C-alpha cells in the first residue's frame, strides 16, 4: 500500500503559512512555492542511492560518496505544478522535466488532459509528479495514469497541501505510488476546494482569476 509522508520540517511549515495567507501577493507567493519545492526536493531525495568513490583532498585520499546516477524525472501537472519545478531543479539539476497538462472541469471537477510531453526514456526513470494541490485527487490519478500508460514504473507524488479525500483516492487508484505532502488539511468544500487550503494555486501563482 502507498505510504503518505508529511514533511514537518520547520522551514517548510513556516513558509507554508505565508503561502496560505491571503495577503501574500503573487511575487512572494511564487518565491515561497519555489523555496518550499527546493526543501521538499531535499527531503524526497533522501533515499537516492550512493556509490563510494576515492577523492583526493589537499591532504590525502578520502573515501566519499556521490549519487550513483539514478535517472530522475520531474513531472509538473500544468499549470500550477510549474511553480515547483525550478525549486526542485536547483537541487537535482540533472533531472529531466516532462509536462502533463490537465485542468479540472469546473462543473464536473473531472480532469481534462490537454498536453503530454515526457522524456524519451520513460521506462528507465524514477518520476516525481508535482502539483501544489491534491484536492479530489482526479488530476493526480489521471497524471499518474498517463505516465504509467507510457511505460513509467517508478512514480512518487509530491504536493504542498492535500485533502484527506484526495489522498484516499490516489492511494486506492495507485497503491504503488507514495505521496509526499507539506500539510494534510481538513476537508474539501462543495466546490472541491481544500479547506483551509490556500485558494486556487494556479491563480495565485500567475495572478489570474
Ligand atoms: C488545480 C491544481 C491541481 C488540481 C487539483 O489545477 O493545481 O492540478 O486543481 O484538483 P483535483 O485534485 O480535484 O483534481 P486546476 O485544475 O485549477 O488547473 P490550473 O493549474 O491550470 O489552474
Ligand atoms: N485546486 C486548487 O488550486 N485549490 C484547491 O483548493 C483545489 C483545487
Using only C-alpha atoms, the radius of gyration works out to 18 Å
SSE string, helices as H and strands as E: EHHEEEHEEEEEHEHEEEH
User: Which range best describes the helical content: under 10%, 10-25%, 25-40%, 40-55%, 55-70% or over 70%?
Assistant: 25-40%
End-to-end gap: 38 Å
**What is the residue-mean pLDDT, rounded to a whole number?**
96
- List the ions, cofactors and other small molecules found in this model: 1-O-pyrophosphono-5-O-phosphono-alpha-D-ribofuranose, uracil
Strand count, sense and barrel status of the largest sheet are: 9 strands, mixed
Unreliable runs, pLDDT <50, ≥5 residues? Answer: none
How many beta-strand runs?
13
Report on this model:
The protein has helices spanning 10-20, 26-44, 85-91, 138-149, 164-173, 201-206, and strands at 4-6, 50-56, 61-67, 72-78, 96-97, 99-104, 111-117, 126-130, 133-134, 154-162, 178-184, 187-188, 194-195. By secondary structure, it is an alpha/beta fold. Strands 1, 4, 5, 6, 7, 8, 9, 10 and 11 form a nine-stranded mixed beta sheet that branches. Strands 2-3 form a two-stranded antiparallel sheet. Strands 12-13 form a two-stranded antiparallel sheet. α1 (10-20) runs antiparallel to α2 and α2 packs across α3. The longest helix is centred in the N-terminal third of the chain and has 19 residues, at 26-44. The model has no long low-confidence stretch (mean pLDDT 96). The chain binds 1-O-pyrophosphono-5-O-phosphono-alpha-D-ribofuranose and uracil (URA). Residues 77, 79-80, 102-104, 109, 111, 131-140, 166, 192, 200-202 line the site of 1-O-pyrophosphono-5-O-phosphono-alpha-D-ribofuranose.
Amino acid at each position: 500500500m502507498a505510504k503518505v509522508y508529511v514533511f514537518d520540517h520547520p522551514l517548510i511549515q513556516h513558509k507554508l503559512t505565508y503561502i496560505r495567507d491571503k495577503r501574500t501577493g503573487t511575487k512572494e507567493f511564487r518565491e515561497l512555492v519555489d523555496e518550499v519545492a527546493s526543501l521538499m526536493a531535499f527531503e524526497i531525495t533522501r533515499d537516492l542511492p550512493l556509490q563510494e568513490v576515492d577523492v583526493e583532498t589537499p591532504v590525502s585520499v578520502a573515501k566519499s560518496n556521490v549519487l550513483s546516477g539514478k535517472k530522475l524525472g520531474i513531472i509538473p501537472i500544468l499549470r500550477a505544478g510549474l511553480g515547483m519545478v525550478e525549486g526542485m531543479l536547483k537541487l537535482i539539476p540533472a533531472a529531466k522535466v516532462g509536462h502533463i497538462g490537465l485542468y479540472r472541469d469546473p462543473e464536473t471537477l473531472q480532469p481534462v488532459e490537454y498536453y503530454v510531453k515526457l522524456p524519451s526514456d520513460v521506462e528507465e526513470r524514477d518520476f516525481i509528479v508535482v502539483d501544489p494541490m491534491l484536492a479530489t485527487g482526479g488530476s493526480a490519478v489521471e497524471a499518474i495514469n498517463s505516465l504509467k500508460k507510457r511505460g513509467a514504473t517508478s512514480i512518487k507524488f509530491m504536493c504542498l497541501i492535500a485533502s484527506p479525500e484526495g489522498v484516499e483516492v490516489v492511494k486506492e487508484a495507485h497503491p504503488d505510488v507514495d505521496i509526499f505532502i507539506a500539510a494534510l488539511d481538513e476537508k474539501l468544500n462543495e466546490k472541491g476546494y481544500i479547506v483551509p487550503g490556500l485558494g486556487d494555486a494556479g491563480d495565485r501563482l500567475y495572478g489570474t482569476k
